[in-house]
Write a structure and sequence with these properties.
There is one protein chain. This protein is mainly α. It folds into two domains: 21-210 and 267-469, MFS general substrate transporter like domains (Growth Hormone, Chain: A, Up-down Bundle), CATH 1.20.1250.20; 211-266. It is built from 16 helices and no strands. The chain is globular. The two termini are 40 Å apart.
Length: 477
């Protein structure tokens, strides 16, 4: 006999209170900034890091993968641990682990030490990120204030994605590759020192037994899925490693569903997906992550490999995009109040798609002001509105005892989407570039043609997301 009974009711129904909740939001957003930043800031430092630690190109890919695998794989478990043991407690534990691992990464004298530190970073981020979003939902239970808070949250996430390239280039050039890890330490210590004074310990928690079989199978499924997508980039879709990891991901996922249907206290109650907005929001987050990660990767390489920009200039050219994103994220709550979340989200995704199509038209000798500034601003506007509204949909109607789970689902969707988008769209770009080279095109022209297809693919994904968003439930003001 199967059951999908929800977890037992929260022990403490009252959400955490803070007389300075907007300051608390700023500190939580700072922690989220670290998590988002760390996914991109390391990229610029990889060549220098590889020379000093004598790491091959294949080994350098593991500097990224060692972080992404535990992060993406443990997010749902991290969210459920936060629900079970307290959101503030698990958040602080994640911060301690993150800054400790960052310090170890900066002190690394060998590749093994660095990869181990990156894995701990990823696991700690999987505790930190869903707990932080859960704390936000408790601090701002009213829909109006929550929408404003999510505007701040979305803006910070966008800044982190765009700032990684800029900060990575500046820090690596001035202070060495170690500084891209050390920068996390003082910021993390500030978060660690202030949160206990801003958010009370009395939080909503779930009682009962933690579903360890469910935790093991979903972690295995997510790690295998992210690993398979990473293997596609490094070895190809038909490589034995890719096929084995894909089969493992499917087997783990099927086992997880069977376990969740049969246990009385599931890690992820399948009934949570009956919340239409949560389900729609997570699908859109996955698609948005696919478009966003591929975009930032391709834009960075296009500017350096084709246009000849150095790392610092490449970072500076992304400031207009980040600025537009932040401004629109701040205005999004007012737009949502006037137009509704669904209309705001659909409009934002259409603008994002238009900006990507415009960007795809950039030639191999493009100048920033003439051909890149306009699409960058439009992309930033679209992303700013989409970040806020998708996050709001994904936590819409979630009870306090499942807010950590909701945060884990949002972050998991974004991670899986990012890995999927990068694997698929970069493969399309590489195939197009190779075809143009064989046809006799010069290298810059061939690369531009490949990136053009990538940008068009990302635009298509954004439009699919807009269609999916149209199925969201009616607005809640």
């Amino acid at each position: 006999m199967t059951t999908t009974a929800p977890l037992s009711s929260p022990v403490s129904p009252a959400p955490p209170r803070s007389s300075r909740r907007w300051l608390a939001l700023g500190v939580l957003a700072l922690a989220q900034f670290l998590v988002v930043l760390d996914a991109s800031i390391v990229n610029i430092a990889l060549p220098v890091l590889g020379d000093q630690l004598r790491m091959s190109t294949a080994a350098l890919a593991w500097v990224i993968t060692a972080y992404v695998l535990p992060f993406g794989g443990l997010l749902l478990l991290g969210g459920r641990l936060a629900d079970r043991y307290g959101h503030r407690r698990v958040f602080l534990l994640g911060v301690v682990g993150f800054i400790s691992a960052s310090a170890l990464a900066g002190l690394s004298a060998s590749s093994g030490m660095l990869l181990g530190a990156r894995a701990v970073q990823g696991a700690s981020a999987a505790l930190l990120a869903p707990a932080a979003l859960a704390l936000l939902t408790h601090l701002f239970p009213e829909s109006g204030d929550r929408t404003k808070a999510l505007g701040v949250w979305g803006g910070v996430a966008g800044i982190g994605s765009a700032a990684g390239v800029l900060l990575g280039g500046v820090l690596t050039a001035t202070l060495g590759w170690q500084s891209v890890f050390f920068v996390n330490v003082p910021i993390g210590l500030l978060v660690l020192a202030t949160i206990p004074f801003l958010i009370s310990r009395d939080e909503t928690r779930t009682s009962g037994r933690l579903d360890m079989p469910g935790a093991a199978t979903i972690t295995g499924a997510l790690v295998s899925a992210v690993g398979a997508l990473s293997a596609v980039q490094q070895a190809g879709a038909s490589a034995p490693l890719t096929l084995v990891l894909t089969a493992a991901a499917v087997a783990f996922a099927v086992s997880f569903v069977v376990i969740e249907r049969r246990t009385a206290e599931p890690l992820v109650p399948l009934t949570v997906f009956a919340n239409r907005n949560l389900s729609i929001g997570n699908i859109v987050v996955l698609l948005l992550g696919a478009a966003m990660v591929a975009l930032f990767f391709a834009l960075s390489v296009f500017m350096q490999a084709v246009l000849g920009y150095d790392a610092l200039t490449t970072g500076l050219t992304q400031l207009p995009l980040a600025g537009a994103l932040v401004v629109v994220a701040g205005l999004a709550p007012a737009l949502i109040g006037r137009l509704g979340a669904k209309a705001t989200l659909i409009g934002s995704l259409v603008l994002l798609a238009a900006g990507l199509v415009w960007l795809a038209a950039a030639p191999s000798d493009a100048t920033f002001v003439a051909q890149l500034l306009g699409p960058s601003l439009l992309i930033g506007i679209g992303m700013g509105g989409a970040f806020v509204t998708t996050t709001q949909l994904s936590v819409d109607g979630v009870e306090g005892g499942e807010s950590g789970l909701a945060g884990g689902l949002v972050n998991t969707s974004q991670q899986i989407g990012g890995a999927l988008g990068l694997a698929v769209l970069s493969s399309i770009a590489a195939a197009r570039t190779e075809a143009l080279v064989h046809a006799g095109a010069a290298t810059p022209v061939a690369l531009t043609g490949g990136f053009s297809w990538l940008f068009l693919g990302a635009a298509g994904i954004a439009l699919v997301a807009a269609v999916v968003a149209g199925f969201a439930a009616g607005e809640r003001h």
